[in-house]
Amino acid sequence: MHFIKFAALGLCSILSVSSTLIRSCTEPNTVALTFDDGPFQYTTELLDYLKEAGIHATFFINGNNYWPELSTDPEKQAILKRVAEEGHQIASHTWNHEIPEQNGVIDKQSVLESLSLIEDLVYKNTGKYPTYFRAPKGEIDEATVMLFEEFNYKVIQWDTDTNDWNRVVNGVKHKDHNARIKAAKEFLTNEYYKKKENYLVLMHDVQPHTVKEIVPYIINNGIFQGYNFVTVAECLGDPTGGWSTIGGNALSILNGGAPPNNNVVQNNYNADVDTIDYSYSNTDFQENRSITTNLNNEVMNLKSDGFMTKTVNFYVIATIILSALYMLL
């Protein structure tokens, strides 16, 4: 009896400290194009290309980066409204393209404030809050991933990096864009020939050559032909679309509450998951958040090995069984 209790507590402890850095899609035959660091002056042109091609993408935006005036300029903010209206996903990339620190240590309060600024900006222009996050330059450790998961954000990386930002190509630094364009085109073509099950592609809409050369190359040359171009949320099978309509995660915490239940699915959409009840009220969720969030993450983990996680399927199943035994003994 004591052994079972010990094992149950031990496995529950393993689950409680695990983190999930999402590096790949889980839905087969999908390509998720993602664009970091914007919006910027080239984003409108990019949206035109995507609209004409019928492609949906995900934009990891900053509030104060290439366009410091974004937060005060309604004309520039209109781009965010267009992004959402045309079926794209908006996600957070921090306000100032940095995860705030104090004396080399992540500043939790400043992180919340940074996230809340993005949430507020996006909500004012789209009526929805973003729930996905990508770290600037992808630089994030496990402890920081866990912090963002505490804020009920899904932390996204990539598995296909075009290096469209890097002037150094094959060890040589170039002054113009030509070498980067050529390298990116060759890389994407080679990746396509691998015929992987899915792709999560990193690009930057603040780079003119990405918008004017690389994206048109993908569209006009049939790169990823036969795949479905989707948002990151769609490529993960997330029925929320990466949005919350019931509150901002960071904003809710700063206002003294818990992050809203972003896993609530409207219209009785069960996303082919029979083991999770999405009918919690917001009040119920305040009491059950940790259980519901962990279970939902584990169900997504069971769908594919595209995640980098410490939790394995055996521990998920064993923990559920042993936890039930522990409650009975």
UniProtKB/TrEMBL annotation:
TM annotation in the entry: 312-328
Specify the superkingdom. Eukaryota
Which SUPFAM superfamilies does the UniProt record give? Glycoside hydrolase/deacetylase
Q: From what organism does this protein derive? A: Piromyces finnis
Q: Please list the GO terms describing molecular function.
A: hydrolase activity, acting on carbon-nitrogen (but not peptide) bonds; metal ion binding
One GO-annotated biological process of the protein: carbohydrate metabolic process
Q: Where is each NodB homology domain found?
A: 29-230
- Put simply, this protein is called Glycoside hydrolase/deacetylase
UniProt signal peptide = 1-19
- Matching PROSITE patterns: NODB
Q: Which cofactor does it need?
A: Co(2+)
Q: Which UniProt keywords apply?
A: Carbohydrate metabolism, Hydrolase, Membrane, Metal-binding, Signal, Transmembrane, Transmembrane helix
The family database entries (InterPro entries) matched by this protein are listed as: Glyco_hydro/deAcase_b/a-brl, NODB_dom
